[in-house]
Write a structure and sequence with these properties.
The chain is α/β, with parallel strands linked by helices and 452 residues long. It has 2 domains: 18-201, Hypothetical Protein Tm841, Chain: A,domain 3 (2-Layer Sandwich), CATH 3.30.1180.20; 225-448, Serine Threonine Protein Phosphatase 5, Tetratricopeptide repeat (Alpha Horseshoe), CATH 1.25.40. The chain contains 16 helices and 9 strands. The protein has helices spanning 2-12, 40-53, 58-70, 102-114, 137-153, 184-191, 212-222, 230-261, 269-285, 293-308, 310-327, 336-354, 364-379, 384-401, 416-419, 425-448; strands at residues 74-78, 82-84, 95-97, 124-131, 157-158, 162-164, 174-181, 194-195, 200-201. Strands 1, 4, 5, 6 and 7 form a 5-stranded mixed sheet that branches. It has a two-stranded antiparallel ribbon with strand order 2-3. The protein has a two-stranded antiparallel ribbon with strand order 8-9. Strand 8 (194-195) and strand 9 (200-201) form a beta hairpin. Helix 8 packs antiparallel against helix 9 (269-285) and helix 8 runs parallel beside helix 10 (293-308). The two termini are 30 Å apart.
Length: 452
């Protein structure tokens, strides 16, 4: 989703941008399109990078990436009690098995991969035995010594294998085995030179392609503040106050949100939300006081997505940008109906990027009822603050109700049963934030007569 957001920004600037999704983890799902990418990222990006370096057009680079992804499956294993089917962001495995000696572990990895061998694949393979960050190289090489004979016994021709820490998850103990089945084209790209900070297969360094002065000039142009109407500047001031209030709230609730997320996730939702809102607040504080609401929330969203990471980071970042764009820097007025439209744009951006629906046990289960209630209250004649507070109450109720749901998307999906009985962390934080924003709107309405 971070890549999706980046692609949308680039396309908005007129830059043709493509996305190639890696789906190599055979343990994460039976359906190929639902599989995650782990160390297969390396094989796909290596092929695309080599094609681009050879001067291929964008269409060709995209085709090579798609072909590379279609050609290789992967299976990954962490920790002492072997968890099968983990993710590279620390997600728990899908199945636990007793610890195996290297010989048996090698057989398990190779057998599962060969069972997923692409139809019509030839005998040449590019293997990657990847350490996940805290596995000793001695152990990786020992395991490779058991894997290689199994590949050869299966009639495979091994081409320039890689053994080491190439796609890691901080200090996770474990490994993954990737087999990329090669044709003539993919073998050429696999053998091609590469030059990056983390991986090199090259005879000589590559010179910088973009002068530093050009980068500085482009950055300066990107910070030009567009003119804004008085209505948009007043809305921007409300946004500044709301962002500050959200920052205080999420710092208070960080531990609670992390504890909820740890039941069927990696426990980082509270930390991610704090990092995101902290970055958004700093970005807002640095914006020109004459800036309109679209510019202010645009900077906040960009900072949130860049700093928070993870699913919620990119979703909140994109949604804040969408909310600001819906109100606009050139708005002649910002009334309750405009806020409803902006809230709908906020929700639509999350649906578009995340691909989830109501009932999937995500933040949408709090957000979508909020938007519906907000619209209903405004249609009945309520002002922004009154309607927002009533809708926030509905969001909190619906967030609590997610405890009865089973997750159908995201990292928690493989642990659906474990999730039952605990509300979704994203829906919970959404309800909290919407409630706090409602309080901000009510205070400003009482003190300053500001409706939005």
């Amino acid at each position: 989703m971070n890549f999706g957001l980046a692609a949308e920004r680039l396309r908005a600037e007129g830059i043709d941008t493509r996305i190639v999704v890696v789906t190599d983890d055979v343990a994460s799902a039976d359906e190929v399109t639902k599989r995650r990418g782990i160390a297969g990222d390396f094989s796909v990006f290596k092929a695309m990078g080599a094609a681009a370096a050879a001067g291929a057009e964008l269409d060709e680079v995209e085709r090579v990436g798609t072909a590379a992804n279609a050609a290789e499956p992967l299976f990954s294993v962490p920790d002492r009690h072997l968890g099968l089917g983990l993710g590279i962001h620390g997600e728990p495995g899908i199945q636990d098995v007793p610890v195996l000696p290297a010989r048996d572990l090698a057989a398990l990895l190779v057998e599962r991969l060969l069972a997923e061998r692409p139809e019509g694949a030839g005998p040449r393979v590019a293997p990657i035995l990847n350490g996940l960050g805290d596995t000793k190289y001695e152990e990786l090489f020992l395991l490779w010594g058991r894997v290689l004979p199994l590949l050869e016994d299966a009639g495979l021709e091994v081409v320039e294998p890689e053994v080491g820490e190439l796609v890691t998850s901080l200090d996770m103990g474990g490994c993954s085995l990737t087999l990329q089945f090669l044709d003539d084209e993919l073998e050429r790209y696999w053998r091609a030179d590469a030059y990056t900070p983390a991986y090199r297969k090259v005879a000589a360094p590559v010179a910088a392609l973009v002068p530093a002065a050009a980068v500085t000039e482009a950055a300066a142009e990107a910070t030009v503040v567009p003119e804004a109407t008085g209505a948009s500047r007043r809305a921007a001031e409300t946004a500044r106050v709301a962002v500050e209030a959200m920052d205080v709230l999420l710092r208070e609730q960080e531990e609670t949100l992390g504890r909820i997320d740890a039941v069927a996730g990696d426990g980082d939702h509270g930390r991610g939300m704090v990092k995101g809102i902290g970055a958004a607040r700093r970005a807002v504080e640095q914006t020109d006081r004459e800036a309109g609401v679209a510019f202010v929330l645009g900077r906040a969203g960009e900072a949130w997505a860049a700093s928070a990471g993870g699913t919620s980071g990119v979703l909140w970042g994109a949604a804040l940008e969408a909310f600001g764009r819906a109100l606009g820097d050139d708005a002649e007025h910002v009334d309750a109906a405009d806020v409803v439209a902006a809230a709908q744009a906020f929700a639509d951006s999350i649906v578009h990027l995340g691909g989830a629906s109501r009932g999937d046990k995500t933040l949408l289960d709090a957000l979508m009822p909020f938007v519906d209630e907000l619209r209903s209250r405004v249609d009945e004649g309520a002002d922004t603050a009154e309607a927002w507070q009533a809708a926030a109450g509905v969001a909190v109720e619906q967030a609590a109700a997610t405890a009865d749901l089973r997750p159908r998307v995201g990292r928690a999906r493989p642990l659906a049963e474990k999730s039952v009985g605990t509300p979704d962390a994203g829906a919970t934080s959404m309800g909290m934030v919407l409630t706090r924003i409602g309080e901000v709107l009510a205070v400003r309405a009482r003190r300053e007569g500001v409706d939005a």
